[in-house]
Amino acid sequence: MSRDQAPYTFESWMDGAYHRPVVVPRENTALLVIDMQNAFLRPDHDLGLGGELSLFAAAIPGCVRLVDAAREAGLPVIFARFSFLPGGGDRQVVRGIRRGAPHADILVAGTPGAEIIEELTPRPGEVLIDKSRPSVFGGTRLEPLLSAQGIKNLVLCGVTTNVCVESTARDAAHRDFDTFVVEDAVGEAEKSRHWHSLYTVDFTFGTVTDVREVERSWGLSDRGPSGHTYLREFKNGMPGDALVAS
């Protein structure tokens, strides 16, 4: 079925009906690495996520590849992290089906759990933005920073796909940035939320791509797959009853 003939559905998107080669601009582009922090990715700084850590950690190889690629291509790399005041005075109230969930004393500014993982340590001169809301645009200096540098395009990676990454992608689209979310460099605790989030972004807020397409677009050598396999395996199981985490 051609892209023109396919209905606009999640199932047809998962079947590849809308896949097209993607070219990610190199000019006026920045890489935004979202919440790749010890608390999300390391069991010794666990948020109480248990087995979900492995789903988040699957994004690490792709993020490392993208950071290396951006540095090699001479693009700005911007890191973002959740970082709350001691005592939690700036924490967001939990709403939705998780309404009333208790807040642990986590992701406090200056604590090890709030720090970026060692593999992605920002280099001198690279910007690190602290935030207390899912979107990196929420109450931070990100927008004036991008404006001052003439950035028109954003490449997003990190965790979690359907909360902080998608929230940032939506806000970027609202501000007319051309936004690219890298599917094998983002992770989510539940696979169905991951893919529904990427479909939502690709439907109207930006473009979903992968690490290899980004590297090729920036004129870098093909380094093979990123190693982020659990999502590809899940996608290959579509459509049908596979819309649950295994």
What this model shows, in words?
By secondary structure, the chain is α/β, with parallel strands linked by helices. It has a single domain (28-236), classed as 3-Layer(aba) Sandwich (Rossmann fold). The protein has helices spanning 10-14, 38-41, 52-57, 60-73, 142-148, 161-174, 191-205, 211-217, 229-236, and strands at 29-34, 77-82, 127-131, 153-159, 178-187, 207-209. Strands 3-2-1-4-5-6 form a six-stranded parallel sheet, with helices on both faces. The radius of gyration is 17 Å and the shape is globular.
Topology:
Layout: H1 10-14, E1 29-34, H2 38-41, H3 52-57, H4 60-73, E2 77-82, E3 127-131, H5 142-148, E4 153-159, H6 161-174, E5 178-187, H7 191-205, E6 207-209, H8 211-217, H9 229-236
Parallel strand pairs: 1-2, 1-4, 2-3, 4-5, 5-6
Oligomerization: single chain
DSSP strand tally:
6
Q: At the third CATH level, what is the topology name?
A: Rossmann fold
Mean pLDDT: 84
Radius of gyration, taken over Cα atoms and rounded to an integer in Å: 17 Å
Low-confidence stretches: 237-246
Q: How far apart are the termini?
A: 29 Å
Q: Tell me, briefly, the overall form.
A: globular
Q: Percentage of helical residues?
A: 25-40%
Question: Quick summary of this structure?
Answer:
The chain is of the alpha/beta class and 246 residues long. It has nine helices and six strands.
Give a quick set of tags describing it.
246 residues; alpha/beta; Rossmann fold; six-stranded parallel β-sheet; 9 helices; 6 strands; globular; disordered C terminus
